[in-house]
User: What shape does this take?
Amino acid sequence: MNNVFVTNFKQSRTMCLGAVIMLALVVSGCGDKHESKGSQSLVKVNGKEITVHQLNQELGRANIQENQREQATQQILTALIDRQLLEDAALKAKVDRDPNVMTAIERAKSQIIAQAYLQSKLANVAKPSKAEIESFYNGNPQFFSKRRMVEMDQLLIDTKFANDELKAALGNLKTLQEVAAWMDARNIQYDQGQVSRSVAELPPQISERLKAEDKGKLFVIGMGPRTMLIMMNEIKDSPVSLAEATPQIENNLLNKSRKEAAENEVKRLKANAKIEYIDKKLETASETKAPKKKPSSTEDDIASGVSGLK
Assistant: This one.
């Protein structure tokens, strides 16, 4: 298998925050642009009002564009009516007294309150300065000023087909067209296409090979349940100016600051709280299993924050 480089691609993003923190981050980035100060009634369902305020909240959550607002308004209003009818029926059937429903209601209430508190804290996080953005840009030339793009053809298959038979065949197959023909003959389904990626976003094993202009090689990359076969076609310089990169960098740095602020607030609350484990075994297990936070690397942050620069 002279021209085949086989590697495993493992995504290594570490989630630093819990679900409440992440939800709060999402909420903090979404404003209700169309919220009305009034609560004018739009329709009554069995005597209960559905108001302009409720409708505008739903439109805000759905992030409806202006040109779709008229159509979406009718659809969302219909959904609100349906929901009210179902709620009325549920209350008559005393579904709200079911223990599982009561627990779910309390859980949702707790999450909403916690999210609202974090949202109020994250709203005070300042946007990065021009100097911070420029420093980030200059400190990561591989993603910006010296960015290189690689054009690739790819085949995506179920990993169960990446077996010894395929590996043996790849030693004699030089192009993806030949690989596709080999798979067609064996009724193996695959997805085929062309992609363009920054070299800095590729797995290290492949990007290292590309530094030597190792084009025209067939790579096989394992991605859990799916396996990708790719052929490098062209590698070219594709720099991104500071002006072009600024929106993505600003968003990246702001999100990072928000995550840090949320995490620090939770740490502060824990430090000032009295937390008692009734079952001491749970305390020990919690301390043992709690993973140490791995600091997110600069490259991970960049890859997630500026991946839209194609």
Summary: The first strand starts at residue 4 and ends at 8. DSSP finds eleven helices and seven strands in the chain. Confidence is low (pLDDT under 50) at residues 1-38, 303-310.
